Amino acid sequence: MGISIFKQLKKIDQTYNNWSGKINFRKLLVVHGKVKPTAVSPEYDVRITYWQNKPPIIEVLSPKLKIRKGKKTLPHVYHSDQLCLYYKDFNIRTDFLADTIIVWITWWLYYYEIWYQTGEWVAPGTHPERW
Prior knowledge:
The chain is an alpha+beta fold. The radius of gyration is 15 Å and the shape is globular. Strands 1-2-3-4 form a 4-stranded antiparallel β-sheet. The protein has a single domain (5-120), classed as Ubiquitin Conjugating Enzyme, CATH 3.10.110. Mean pLDDT is 90; it is low at 126-131. It contains 2 helices and 6 strands, in the order αββββββα. It starts with a helix and ends in a 13-residue tail after the last helix. Residues 8-128 form the Type II CBASS E2 protein domain. This is Type II CBASS E2 protein domain-containing protein. It holds the Pfam family E2-CBASS.
């Protein structure tokens, strides 16, 4: 059955003081948090939308992610604004969002900032075509 959304929220609350969430009547977990990849980075407001046993939807709410001059789209996103964080590395049945997804959001934003300055997506990974 997997980790319940109640346990997911509890782990996030225990792990991060700058993230909070709510579970609605449809058993949908919506979590908001702040991410600052480096000391000179802006603070990003991020939302994770998660139904148990389904891939999470990750969106940066602010500041708005910008497309680098000379590029047509943001790299490694779905539907133009949902972050693509992993290929098969997240197991929806056994992994906590707090231990994986939130950490990966920080890394994604770190690589986004490098991409925005250089035009190259330099993130490592086993599936570079997905990064």
